[in-house]
RAS p21 protein activator 3
Amino acid sequence: MCVGKVAVKKEDLQKYHGKDTWFQLQPVSADSEVQGKVHLELRLSEVITDSGVISHKLATRVLECQGLPIVNGQCDPYAAVSLLGPSRSEAKKTKVKRKTNNPQFEEVFYFEVTRPLSYTKRQFDVEEEDVDKLALRVDLWNASNLKFGDEFLGGVRVPLRVLGQAGVHDAWYFLQPRENGGKSVKVDDLGSLRLNIVYTEDHVFPSEHYTPLRDLLLHSANVEPVSASTAHTLGEVCREKQEAAIPLVRLFLHYGKIVPFISAIAHAEINRTQDPNTIFRGNSLTSKCIDETMKLAGMHYLQVTLKPIIDEICTEHKPCEIDPVKLKESENLETNRENLRHYVDRIFNVITTSGVRCPTVMCDIFFSLRESAATRFQVDQDVRYTAVSSFIFLRFFAPAILSPNLFHLRPHHPDPATSRTLTLISKTIQTLGSLAKSKSANFKESYMAAFYDYFNEQKYADAVKNFLDLISTSGKWDQKSIETPIMLKEGFMIKRAQGRNRFGMKNFKKRWFRLTNHEFTYHRTKGEGALCSIPIENILAVERLEEESFKMKNMFQVIQPERALYIQANNCVEARDWIDILTKVSQCNRKRLSTYHPSAYLNGHWLCCKLSADTAPGCTPCTGGLPANIQLDVDGDRETERIYSLFSTYMTKLIKMQEACGSKSVYDGPEQEEYSTFVIDDPQETYKTLKQIISAVQTLEQQHTKYKRDKFKKTKIGSQEHPIGDKSFQCYIRQQSESSTYSI
């Protein structure tokens, strides 16, 4: 049952933007729920009757309708046309148009307009007093086969004074609700609804209009200090950092500059942080930008990683309550703990083994965070991990587990019992990922501290660190000179000799393989020097090798510029793991192959395609492995327009920030309280940027003003694009009056 509704007109949305507002619920009735528009043509003509009396007839032509609502799966519309006056109400109907909500009527109806006896005063004009009392009513109905009668679709009331001196009126009208159509209900009886409305309307110019502001924004990562950059300034003047982060992240992602920008602002924030335990704890511009990047770039990663297990939890409904106070009589505490532990273990494993699927752009950002944090706090050995885990666990995986519907993992919010299970899992995963020294102290509830004892094993901390190492490895191998090598995977496998002596089983040797983010090596045994080293940038592809090549299972190939290294893993799972992680670390290599040979080169030819040249191009497309980056449907000009709108909205704060720069440059004394909220590291550089921002914003402001002025001049109210509505009727009358005056 529908209790009531809240309806806000489009022209009023801007008044409520960004505000919590209580709205009274309005009654809902079929007569008030209308949509669509109708095209009418009215013509008043003079007719001389047989008796010689002059009368006037109104010809009403109903041409067509567009966008009528579909009622109960059908729309069979017809129009009812009435001439309304103090002492008359004549009604006529069009034919019913079947199965269309865009009917073409093209029907004309005639009504005689009664004239007073004093008509000789104006022989050719209809007197205003008479016309003012008449109106045309056109109602659209759906011809229903139900016993309840036809359904009202909307209507319009057109006063005949719109005919003016010309006696002709041709216009489109928005359909309106029927007057007093609903039941008599006291509004106070229905209650009220609190809404927070966010409304944006963008008028986007051609790209060249945004060049000055866009160039300032995209140059932000190169400004020294970064706090004096245009993008950072936007974060300083906006009321909420999130306001600035959303368009900034989308703009920088679109132009491929998100990593250097976030690296620059993160490095500056880390250098301002005094305690490594408080790193990225606040809602800073850096935190919000990384959050937004993860939402955009990491959504597919989140779906692939968590959706299957979240679906399972929501479907199974296993009891997992471990608070003795909330335990139901039919439940067993130990059984519930075991259920919860099983789910936590499952989710922990899918997360910590998902590093190979983490998007490259996120890995590059995490690499930057790790390096900046490790450089700033060299004594703290764990800060390189906590800087990354504070985002990937605390702000990415944990919230997605807690509210899967908000991350498109589930269509609806889970039921209370399942929501409670997800809350307990999210808390545990968050703590496991935090690598805190005293984890039991992280829980206020004693039952959570007791439950967490199950996970107080070194293997969990090691798994988290290995995962964080992998996702904070830069895909850009030009970073390798400054990056400390990180061991990603190692173990025994069997490899085939790469030298000239390629024949015989004796050339398959068991070796110890070791992969870092710099190189892939193999050794005679663990701890010995490398027999062979393959730089990561030399890995052109990593693909499976067909079993027929050597009659051996679980084989794969690491393809290099000169030859391929053939390797046999111990089982199919291990083979998949090695292929995934090798693909992950080499996916950004500049010369990656698009095709490969799925079989080996033996006895002078490739077994797959039979070509004899060992340098022949591959015959099969590479599987592609993982996407090197995320392609987003972003309009760079629209995001720049939104940033302009924010700067325009907060222009007074930009000017205040200019004053703060002047104050800081001139006076060495205590900073004024009204200026203390701004981060200004270099007053002169910041002032220079502010001046450029204000100039670019003012130029765009002038262009918007000109556009609105020109648009108003060109707008024809009553056209198909701008139908006459409830509020635009007076504007139409004024526009017609101005047009007539101009013609005279």
Remarks:
- The longest strand covers residues 54-66.
- The CA atoms of residues 173 and 729 lie 9 Å apart.
- The chain has 18 helices and 21 strands.
